[in-house]
Amino acid sequence: MERLSPSAAGRPSPTAAIEPYGARDPSPLRDAEIQVQEEDGPSDGSRLLACLQVWAQHRDGRVRLHYRMRSSGSPGPLPDAAQLHERLQDLAPPLPAAWHEALLQGWPLPLHGLHRIELVPGAVWVSIAIGLKPSLQRRLDAQWRARPQARPNLAGPAAANPRHASPPRPLPRSESHAEEQKTAVIVGAGLAGCAMADALARRGWRVTVLERSERIGGAVAGIPLLAQHPALSPGEDRRSRLLVAALLASRRLAGRLGDAMHWCGRFQPMPLAEARMRTAGVPPSIAQPVGHSDPGVHGVEGWQGIWYPGCAMAHPQRWWQRLLQDPAVELHLSRSVAAVRGSGGRWQALGHDGEVIASAAVLILANQAQAFALAELPDAARGRLRHSWIQVAVGTAAEDGAKEGLKNEAELAERGAVSRPRILGGSRYLLEDPGRHCVIGPLRPGEDRARAHLQLDGTADITPPGLTTDDAAYRWQLSEPAERLLLRDNLPMIGAAPDAAAIMASARQYARNDRLPLPRRQSLHLLTGLGGRGLLWSVLGAEMIAAAVNREPPVVEPDLQDAVDPARFLRRSLRRAAAGQAEGTKLLSS
What we know:
By secondary structure, the protein is α+β, with helices and mostly antiparallel strands. Helix 7 packs parallel to helix 11 (316-323) and helix 20 (568-578) crosses helix 21 (582-589).
């Protein structure tokens, strides 16, 4: 048996093999996982590339690899993307082209946090933790110790340091049973349902989506274009870190969705001093303070603020149309779900007369406020709910304008160029997809249409250059009002639903010991409360839930998981009970 050992030049031995500890035949690793962790401290990436090179040569499609790296200090000890590219070029034999590209595109920016690169969907990942607090790193280690794993025999990091290797616990499931379990029902066909179905289908899951209305799109079904709206806070609070994670997740998604999502940027006006404070420590590829905006770059002239070059706009209908081409995704409209129940290790969605509409191993509730009732969550578990309504002015391309726009778009395509939609910021913004739609909003629901159009001239925070609602190329009308659900802390709910009945039955015990994990309703998940940032939160939340149910490495660090945990409001009530506060005492008495 030969062990993996990088040469002095940083190149691996091409004849090295991967075998489990105590086994000469790799077959016991079928339906198992291998986890390899590199030592803390500086790294030039050679051990990572050596491991991946051997894995690419000897991999079995039913064995999954998770390679972990961590740097306890700044991102400095890690090679940058240019250095990584140079090492990839020198690697012989080379990595598969898709792996090469995924490594370069996903290599972390100089940001503290947890970064994950997926080389093979559902099979091969690289996780890189940069500058995590020891308490967060210990929680990450505990998450992986609790998962069924197999111990690898890789010379270097894991073999030389067995304390980092995972205990040999092969998965007890047969392949056919595993495939049977990869089924999900999603309630709600809005942004959250679409992103969730996309994330699971990409991992090989069979997905059934149930929507109570007669059309897809949920609350934004009548809006043809949507924009991402990040809003960083001063300092690295959890909300800002989540928004950065959502922008990075969207960047990975945009490359797969073609014309359903455009990566085109957004400008947020504010004083320059405030912009600098909010973007301190954030890489320029995510957010840049701007002292004097350039209309050719930022879409507006002479403004101060923050430019987000990685923001995107999306076409919900195009996204759904693209998704429904996948035979693994099944959509049912006009199917209202009255209740859900677990039965025989599966979840069932029930209609109003009690009939079973659909059943699957996993159930995801992505239907705004109705999700709380279906998950049987009391007021204490969801906090105070708020609803806001928006409308937008939608311009549909007139016939001549549409022809001209499509002609110009075809000419751009022939030259290899891409038409660049615009995203502008402020209380009003403009989205323009040449030759098809323009969207200006948000407007106040019920606002007079003519007055709403005039607001875009001198009274808007930003005057869109080169386009007004009087433009003859577009026919304008107001969209239907769209309802947005906001939770008390302005963060979404993403993750496993708490078992509120079990928690409240033992509330005194959980109030006395804050470290006890709260019981969950197994395989029931929530993705709701997206508020005005649905396009950002839906993408990140879908990746987080899909990674959890597919037993993948986590997408974000543990404290960010806590920030959006569906059990967080119950946990806060229990803490108040332990402190003798009135709200918590009420929970105990109930």
